[in-house]
Amino acid sequence: MTTIAAEPVAERVTRIRKAKDAKVSRTEGWRRRGPLLPALIFMIVVTQVPFLFTLYYSTQSWNLVRPGSRRFVGLRNYLEIVRDSQFWSVTVNTVVLIVGVVLISAFLGLLLALLLDRAFLGRGVVRTLLITPFLVTPVAGALVWKTAMLDPVFGIVNFVLTPFGVHDIDWVSRYPLPSVMVEMVWQWTPFMMLLILAGLQSMPRDILEAGRVDGAGAFALFRELTLPHLRRFIELGVVLGAVYLVNTFDTIYMMTQGGPGIASANLPFYIYQRAFLGFDMGQAAAMGVVVVVGTIVIATFALRLIFTSFTGKEEAA
Fold this sequence. Notes:
Helices cover 76% and strands 1% of the residues. The chain has helices at 2-6, 9-33, 37-57, 76-82, 85-116, 123-135, 138-149, 156-161, 171-174, 176-201, 205-213, 218-246, 250-255, 267-276, 281-316; strands at residues 60-61, 71-72. It has a two-stranded antiparallel ribbon. Helix 10 crosses helix 12 (218-246) and helix 12 packs antiparallel against helix 15 (281-316).
């Protein structure tokens, strides 16, 4: 009681007011988070709980064709992955697929975005047609390219190349990975185009006009002004495209079935083969954990780089 009495009235009022404000702030915070709880619970149930089960299965030796063979083996599945030469070959395929598709799509998307940023007759129709491949489902797009475009007898590609001495080439069988990459570039270029086009249209026009007044040519304006402005949009498209392409399964399954051999298989398809064709659930689970952890690590660094770029641009502005 002596401490309370000795405390100045103003300080007591301030302390009580801060305590009430903190209580109100906590209440307000939970009130705002409340509507998000169902989505958070759903995400945990759908993503985190299966991942915990995958972690558990990755420590088991479990082959579905041998009943009663399930037993705890610790980290042996992970050690076998390190010694699996096919796993590393498929990893190389995955890296080539992702890097090739993302870089080519970003380059073509940049060219198309620069084209659509200019006013010309029929620009709306051209924009709609260029966006269409991204709206096609991956399974349908894969079937169209396998049967209508790359077929050795009736394919449009062989028909177009016939005057140049190219005919009756079974592109899917002879060049499986490039065939898959061509289809995915066709499907992902519109996404890159839209993202870069949004960046182009957000660029202040007065900067370009000032550059033209100073005598800068078109290439100099692109190199010194347009490309630095588009850098963060291109980086965002590259990261989003890479994260999505890591999970590619349907296109490979429909076009090549991972063959011949594992020439066109990527990590998700190889994990599918181990789980549902080889019935080795333990090794498939371990591979899944390795792929998820690797993807999270790479995506975290890439997204941090992009967010730093965006925040740095905003602070500079």
